[in-house]
Design a protein that fits this description.
The chain has 99 residues and is mainly β. The protein is built from 3 helices and 7 strands; from the N terminus they run ααβββββαββ.
Length: 99
């Protein structure tokens, strides 16, 4: 999750088990993150217990921007068939069987 979202919701305070880890950025230096286990996330009509969540501590770069709250990882997205309708600017998520 991007730093502005993390700070606005005081997520570091409610995730005391989060541990530091530098995540390699696509370009540039590693980004400082804390990784911990959340209680629960509801997404696309499904509920996920104990998801792994990255909390940005970056001072610069894309994970410090407030235009988006963060990135949804493949571990959650693998439970859905995802269709992007660019013309309508719509994301459609359909649960996959067994997901």
């Amino acid at each position: 999750l991007n730093r502005p979202f993390v700070e606005a919701h005081k997520l570091i305070d409610v995730m005391p088990d989060a541990k530091a880890s530098n995540v390699q950025a696509a370009i540039g230096t590693p980004a400082p993150f804390l990784y911990g286990t959340g209680k629960q996330v509801a997404f696309g009509g499904k509920t996920f217990d104990r998801p792994r969540i990255g909390l940005s501590r970056a001072e610069s770069g894309s994970s410090t921007r407030s235009e988006r709250d963060g990135i949804i990882g493949n571990d959650l997205l693998r439970h859905f068939r995802m269709t992007i309708d660019y013309r309508r600017k719509t994301l459609i998520l359909e649960p996959v069987e067994g997901g």
